[in-house]
Task: inverse folding
């Protein structure tokens, strides 16, 4: 057994009542959580830990470490495995954060059931709902399994006791902000409580080689609630995103010690639960029989996944001296910039028209590669001339009207060809578009006026 000795200073200690940060002298503002007036004198000395006299587990050479114990375990949800890099790693702690109602609990309950059906014990600890409420949702989404255990607990000690008793292979905590420890001051969800809960669960996960999924709340600005230390302690941080009026949900890995962070998983949240979408491009493209002016289809990259999306534009003569500029799903300032480029560099007179630019399906397009599609959609609406059918366009447009290259040109072309498109307008690149599929026509342009004269005249 390791023994520890400590040496204490004679100076009084001061402690923050919010996060537990300590210091040897009083300050008006906490150095950790930046709260004012929360540092109080505790009357205890500040301890300093010295080296242990004996070591419980000696260090090993890296060549002697068995890496097979950290092999990926599939979850049964292909889109989640895609984001994680292959599946769950034994002993890994994963934090899943998202806004209320986005579908975090539904996704994890589905993962728990599918993992339990592989004869693995799974413990689902819920601090927000009762066990009966979770059972009702599980029956609705067909997530009932024999090896899935439910525990409605808000006390950290009781939850860890359930772990000791069941010894699960997978632990799910919903959520980390609802658990609290009786040994730490503060209410559940506070900085000190979240820190203690996360540290205790992570220690149990590493000691038992148990994969752990933690649900985290987010603040108004979208950041994870609690101390920033929480994101550093866990192995993987995932963000679950989605619009309230859309069924599409996107899962991104912000931090991943075991895989890439440039991939995205797509899910469809419906009344029957949550389902992975291997081909979500059809959600963002309208289905009209006849060509319509003011529409253009582009290919955007969500991580390493190309997705087709449609941009629509409508121009109407403005009765006001100040025309209206309305956008949906696009950055309003970038659309205003493109309108100015169209007027000054391409001669498209828009100063008397109200402009409405939106995306189909509620998708948000923030990539600069969608600039060319937005400009072509607006120009098509102005000329009242539809663009050719089965055409895609992508490229970044500069203030001088030049069309700049974007990454993944060949990957975007391959995705468009797979979905039945036959023509593409792309930025000119010194390396070219790469191998072009048979029967697919690619036209490279260097300036916005080239694309306009080619497609609209």
Result:
């Amino acid at each position: 057994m390791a023994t520890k000795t400590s040496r204490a200073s004679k100076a009084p200690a001061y402690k923050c009542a919010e996060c537990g940060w300590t210091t040897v002298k009083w300050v008006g503002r906490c150095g950790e959580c930046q709260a004012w007036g929360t540092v109080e004198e505790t009357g205890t000395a500040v301890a300093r830990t010295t080296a242990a006299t004996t070591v419980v587990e000696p260090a090993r050479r890296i060549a002697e470490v068995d890496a097979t114990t950290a092999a990926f375990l599939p979850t049964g949800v292909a889109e989640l495995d895609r984001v994680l890099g292959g599946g769950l790693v034994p002993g890994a702690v994963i934090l899943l954060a998202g806004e209320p109602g986005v579908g975090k609990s539904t996704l994890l309950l589905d993962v728990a059931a599918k993992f339990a059906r592989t004869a693995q014990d799974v413990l689902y600890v819920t601090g927000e709902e009762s066990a009966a409420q979770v059972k009702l949702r599980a029956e609705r989404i067909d997530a009932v399994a024999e090896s899935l255990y439910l525990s409605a607990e808000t006390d950290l000690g009781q939850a860890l006791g359930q772990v000791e008793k069941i010894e699960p292979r997978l632990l799910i905590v919903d959520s980390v902000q609802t658990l609290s420890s009786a040994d730490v001051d503060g209410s559940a969800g506070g900085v000190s409580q979240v820190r203690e809960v996360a540290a205790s669960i992570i220690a149990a996960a590493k000691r038992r080689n148990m994969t752990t999924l933690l649900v985290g709340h987010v603040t108004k600005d979208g950041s994870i609630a609690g101390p920033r230390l929480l994101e550093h302690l866990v192995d993987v941080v995932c963000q679950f995103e989605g619009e309230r009026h859309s069924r599409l949900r996107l899962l991104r890995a912000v931090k991943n010690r075991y895989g890439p962070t440039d991939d995205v998983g797509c899910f469809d949240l419906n009344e029957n639960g949550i389902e992975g979408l291997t081909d979500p491009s059809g959600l963002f493209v309208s289905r009209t029989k006849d060509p319509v002016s003011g529409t253009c289809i582009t290919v955007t990259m969500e991580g390493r996944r190309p997705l087709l999306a449609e941009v629509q534009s409508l121009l109407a003569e403005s009765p006001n001296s100040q025309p209206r500029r309305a956008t949906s799903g696009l950055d309003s300032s970038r659309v205003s910039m493109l309108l100015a480029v169209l007027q000054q560099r391409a001669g498209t007179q828009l100063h008397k028209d109200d402009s409405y630019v939106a995306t189909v399906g509620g998708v948000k397009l923030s990539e600069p590669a969608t600039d060319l599609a937005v400009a072509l959609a607006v120009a098509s609406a102005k000329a009242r001339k539809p663009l050719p059918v089965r055409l895609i366009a992508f490229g970044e447009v500069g203030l001088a009207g030049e069309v700049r290259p974007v990454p993944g040109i060949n990957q975007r072309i391959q995705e468009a060809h797979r979905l039945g498109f036959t023509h593409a307008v792309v930025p000119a690149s010194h390396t070219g578009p790469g191998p072009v599929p048979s029967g697919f026509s690619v036209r490279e342009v260097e300036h916005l006026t080239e694309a306009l004269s080619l497609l609209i005249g």
Residues 1-9 have pLDDT under 50 and may be disordered. The first helix runs from residue 78 to 84. The first strand starts at residue 6 and ends at 8. The radius of gyration is 28 Å.
